[in-house]
Write a structure and sequence with these properties.
Elements: E1 8-11, H1 17-28, E2 32-37, H2 44-50, E3 54-58, H3 64-78, E4 83-86, E5 91-93, H4 101-129, E6 132-137, H5 150-170, E7 175-182, E8 195-197, H6 205-211, H7 223-232, E9 239-242, H8 246-262, H9 264-269
Parallel strand pairs: 1-2, 1-4, 2-3, 4-6, 5-8, 6-7, 7-9
Helix pairs in contact: 1-7, 3-4, 4-5
Length: 280
């Protein structure tokens, strides 16, 4: 593969975790990055190291108007956008019954609607260029589910569904879309700013104990090269798992297929007679 041309990135949630690692990886190879975070002070060291190659932007992705302004600022500064990384988000842990309306709505506002607002803001730019690549950072939790993380899964599955449609809608404009599905990594995800928990209901103590899981965590720095490989690919994948969780995901999908096939007679019977709509 020939060396890539320098790219211009727009990355949300660039203050920590994957967003920070991927921002630094892009800048270290000579790319330019509009790096967004709620707190600009977290981005000061990037400016000190990389100068004008980085544009730090304060951004709360739940503020749709602010998202549009940030994208406009990035385009005014750099002239184009090549890679857009929807990385901003946090985890909400709690049983479905424990979720308050506020907790659930805030989870969806950040993880799902934030990604939608950024996607909608950058698409006119990418369409005009007839090029670009949107990375939707979902999770292995966007294709599978664990007990006690239903709200987080709901937000990530929503992004996955949106992205599957988006892939088909923008392909003719030369725009690629990739759902990036990391497994568990030793990032700051479990920190106070990246993870929230519901108030626990005593009836679920046994469920929590029975489903407790010891996670084997990957090295987050190993993901940087993978991300660069994806954005440099001529035909990038519409989705990619990062880490060692693919065998488990394959088992889950195999079991889904098995159950669907087992119930196929009921499925077919539910169709009834074939109806062909009359032409208008």
């Amino acid at each position: 593969m020939s060396p890539p041309d320098h790219k211009t990135w727009f990355i949300t949630g660039a203050s920590r975790g994957f967003g920070r690692l991927w921002t630094e990886a892009a800048l270290e190879r000579g790319d330019r990055v509009a790096a967004t975070a709620r707190d600009l002070t977290a981005l000061e060291s990037l400016t000190e190291r990389f100068g004008d190659a980085v544009l730090p932007l304060a951004l709360d992705v739940t503020d749709r108007a602010a998202v549009s302004r940030a994208v406009e600022h990035a385009v005014d500064r750099f002239g184009r956008l090549d890679v857009v990384v929807n990385n901003a988000g946090y985890g909400l842990f709690g049983m479905v019954e424990e979720l308050t309306e506020t907790e659930l709505r805030e989870q969806m506002e950040t993880n799902f609607f934030g990604a939608v607002w950024v996607t909608q803001a950058v698409l006119p730019v990418l369409r005009a260029q007839r090029s670009g690549h949107i990375l939707q950072v979902t999770s292995e939790g966007g294709v599978r589910a664990y007990p006690g993380i239903g709200a987080y899964h709901a937000s990530k599955w929503a992004v996955e569904g949106l992205s599957d449609s988006l892939v088909q809608e923008v392909a003719s404009f030369g725009i690629h879309v990739t759902a990036v599905e990391p497994g568990p990594y030793a990032t700051e995800f479990a920190g106070s700013k990246s993870l929230r928990t519901t108030e626990h209901h005593p009836d679920y103590v046994g469920v929590r104990e029975a489903t407790a899981k010891e996670w084997v965590l990957g090295d987050p720095e190993a993901t940087a090269e993978a991300i660069l490989t994806i954005v440099d690919a001529e035909n990038p994948p519409p989705r990619i798992v990062l880490g060692h969780t693919l065998p488990e995901i394959e088992e889950i999908y195999a079991d889904r297929l098995r159950v669907w096939r087992e119930w196929a007679p009921v499925t077919e019977a539910a169709f009834g007679r074939r109806i062909i709509p009359e032409a208008a």
